[in-house]
Amino acid sequence: MTELKRSIERVIDDSELPKRLRERVRQTMIDREVDDKSVAEEIVQAVSAQYEANRVDPLEPVGTVSAQSIGEPGTQMTMNTFHYAGVAEIDVTQGLPRLIELVDARKKPDTPMMTVYLEDEFADDREKAHEVVWQIESTRILSLGDVSTNVADMRVTITLNEETLEERMIEPETVQERIESQLGVDASLDGTVIEFGPTQPSYRELLQLVEDLRDIVFKGIEDISRVVIRKEELDEGEEFVLYTEGSSFGDVLDIDGVDATRTITNDIHEIHKNLGIEAAREAIINETMETLEEQGLDDVNVRHLMLVADIMTNNGDISSIGRHGISGAKASVLARAAFEVTVNHLLDAAVHGEIDTLSGVTENVIVGKPIKLGTGDVDLRVGTADQ
Amino acid sequence: MVNVHAHTLVPEHRVMNEDEIEEFLEEYDIDRTDLPKIVAGDAAIPDEASVGDVIEIKRDSRTTTTAYVYRLVIEG
């Protein structure tokens, strides 16, 4: 069955259900081949009743419910930093450490990583995909050739590997120029052999030069140490997708051949910087949900994570959950003191003569007053019947 | 520079006109400053937006079809 009767369609459309739910009801009815109007009415009524019963009531403490709903499954997550060699053999922090990292809004993730999608012509051609890889992956001297140090002559000799140079599209001259400008030495080039040494014969300086030589990036982006290329199945055909160790979102988006509409990073601050606060919110939801799903805790309702992401991005910047972020910005002294570093907060408040208006939850629990939530926020007034 | 708005993570942003703002502030009985914020230097903010404007964001919602949210433009 592919279509429902008009009368049944009307029953669904007349219901008070939100669009997405209506669509699911319709699809299920098609799958189960419902063709009786009274049955359809019964189904819609049952779904509506469930929907109404599960809606958030006015004055319900949604934040507390979210905290519990994420906290309880959190107890079942792996405690230690567990590196998971998942997609394409790249280590990524998973489980509880990752979740903590996200809600703490750390400046740099423990294991930054990007998923780079390619534009059409690059995505189905391994050669062209590799061209993009060389633009992204940082190329240092050790992957280009052999370095030997001659202590007697005070010279450093690099024998470049011709095949690698060709593969990565680097000229020996470029390597020579990079070395000269970065190390401030005169380097000679003979075929594929580069030679240079310190201006004054000095053992220490010679070793220092070799040290510095290893850090020079000849091609690619400095922060990205490794790129893995993987063929991925799509609904139609296949495409090559790159996974990177290290993240530099802004730089990668500018590279020719990179699909700047799908490429993502696991660094929420980079997303914020390059795509704005709304994209950061989306990224927080996606990342937290994926972290939970990966641990088999996919029954956490996404609404809780949406609330967390909304609060974290509320002031236009990413703020962390905790005393340096959301909890530290609370207006009430008592609420802040109840969370962490109690004495400091009380002392500071006393010094500055702060006033607590007792409008939140925590402070009212402390002083023993009813909280302004649920029935606690409802006042009754006695009036006359004719009013 | 890449087109930020083409990215799948970025929802549609639009600067609202004053009448629309009045209307919905009245509907929810809130002040402009009660809204969530967006900084003027945000990567996805429309070019013509200035501090004090309200941006309407059309999100592709996970729980319903589309959700409209509003952010007040602040300095930064």
What do you see in this structure?
Chain A has helices at 6-14, 19-31, 37-54, 62-74, 95-103, 120-123, 126-136, 162-168, 172-183, 203-215, 249-253, 268-275, 277-294, 302-312, 333-339, 342-352, 362-367; strands spanning 82-85, 91-94, 113-117, 145-150, 155-160, 188-190, 193-196, 226-233, 238-245, 264-265. Chain A is α+β, with helices and mostly antiparallel strands. Chain A has four domains: 6-54, no CATH class; 56-109 and 266-321, no CATH class; 139-215, Aspartate Aminotransferase, domain 1; 330-377, DNA polymerase, domain 1, CATH 1.10.150. The radius of gyration of chain A is 30 Å and the shape is flat. In chain A, 27% of the residues are buried. Chain B is an alpha+beta fold and 76 residues long. Chain B has one domain (4-74): Eukaryotic RPB6 RNA polymerase subunit (Alpha-Beta Complex). Chain B has one helix spanning 18-28, and strands at residues 12-15, 37-39, 54-60, 66-74. A four-stranded mixed beta sheet of chain B has the order 1-3-4-2, with no helix packed on it. Chain B is globular. The mean pLDDT of chain B is 90. The A-B interface holds A 18-20, 253-254, 260-262, 264, 271-279, 282-283, 285, 302-303, 306, 310, 313-317 and B 1-4, 6-11, 13, 36-39, 42-45, 57, 59, 62-65, 71, 74, 76.
